[in-house]
Amino acid sequence: MQVTETQAEGLKRAFRVVVPATELDAKAAARLSDLKDKVKLNGFRPGKVPVAHLKRVYGRSVMAEVIEQTVTEANGKIVEDNGFRLALQPKVALPEDQDEVKGVIEGEKDLTYTVELELLPKIELGNFKELKVEKPVVEVSDAEVDETIARIADANRPYSAKAGAAAKGDRVSVDFVGTMDGEKFEGGSGEDVQVVIGSNSFIPGFEEQLEGINVGETRTVTVSFPEAYAARALAGKPASFEVTAKGIEAPGELVLDDEFAKTLGQESLAKLKELVRQRIESEHAGVARQKIKRTLLDALDAAHQFDVPAGLVEQEFTGVWEQVKQDLAAQNRTFADEDTTEDEAQAEYRKIAERRVRLGLVLAEIGERNNIQVSDDEVTRAVVERARQFPGQEQQVWDYYRRNPQAMASVRAPLFEEKVVDFLLELADVTEKKVTKEELYKEDEDEKAA
């Protein structure tokens, strides 16, 4: 076998490989000889089929298998001999000329093919003890706990039927039909929907226009959907709703005491407050974790600038770009609605794809050098947690992951990333910075982009 390097630019390598016909023929003959004792053909006793006859019957298929195996072994030898670390699977170009293909299959011509390789870069890791990151910390105040409990209480407040018109704080059961430019729209109708006037849970202006309505009365409510409305096809647009009141209830008295706590399964109001405080602390800690992780990843990106495999970037970009287009289509929006052009958006998302690939390689390198691994038990627990998010479908979810290696890898990857982040935070110089709740949850433009 003759191997000639034809390209060595950056992370790309290419080779021309020539495998003599005699070598292929010898391998095919060995395979046919092995088949002699295994195949059964009419007219021949087991193990007595002449190799020449086997070659006439199976020769072409056996040679095809030999060629496939030879190419795989040759590529593996190229990688091993040169100490390459591949970013992607080798890209092989076999002969396309029919006469040449026929000659190779029939053992009359040498096999000549080319293989292109894209390599992983050599990464020089920095000194992680020099990393400086701030950890935002929010103290949970008694007022925040009381406010949360008040919302819980309000959601569990008893209501009773009342006579007369609806007032602020009342719960009104309504049917409604929404129209836009005189036409009904998807999601614009509902029956027996309960609206608490003043709860600000509906489109701005909707609840206020129900004040004074009586049971059996129908009135037209006109509103405009918020600019940031989730259904982008409706965002910022005016709509009219024909609303009929079917029932009106007044809120009952609610005392925040031990008895109220017991209705929620807690032994006392103090215990309820303790649990609420723990939940708020956990939520704040989750947000703080994402903030410090973003800071850490920014620092890693800045400290590790190197060429990344173009093929990996293209794969990442393709996935991101397809999702972008699907989201825009689902929201009935264009790039112009996002104050950009398709070319500008593509350029921006390519930068994001390149950053993702670079950080992925850095994190993988850190994990490999420090023997950071995710056990099968950890993956299994994560899949079980995902399955629990689909009550009644747990077995189907479990089977999906168990039978789909890519899906299982999608579970393992974030677990690995979090372990590497934990490892880095143990080495880095982490200082705590007290911030307000508003500062913690403030999301700047860079974070949105990331």
From TrEMBL:
Family matches, as InterPro entries: PPIase_dom_sf (IPR046357), PPIase_FKBP_dom (IPR001179), Trig_fac (IPR005215), Trigger_fac_C (IPR008880), Trigger_fac_C_sf (IPR037041), Trigger_fac_ribosome-bd_bac (IPR008881), Trigger_fac_ribosome-bd_sf (IPR036611), Trigger_fact/SurA_dom_sf (IPR027304)
Catalytic reaction(s) noted: [protein]-peptidylproline (omega=180) = [protein]-peptidylproline (omega=0)
GO CC field: cytoplasm
Pfam (any one): Trigger_N
Domain PPIase FKBP-type: 169-264
PROSITE patterns cross-referenced by the UniProt entry: FKBP_PPIASE
Location within or outside the cell: Cytoplasm
Group of enzyme by EC: isomerase
Protein function: Involved in protein export. Acts as a chaperone by maintaining the newly synthesized protein in an open conformation. Functions as a peptidyl-prolyl cis-trans isomerase.
Notes on the domains: Consists of 3 domains; the N-terminus binds the ribosome, the middle domain has PPIase activity, while the C-terminus has intrinsic chaperone activity on its own.
Name of protein: Trigger factor
Species the sequence originates in: Xanthobacter tagetidis
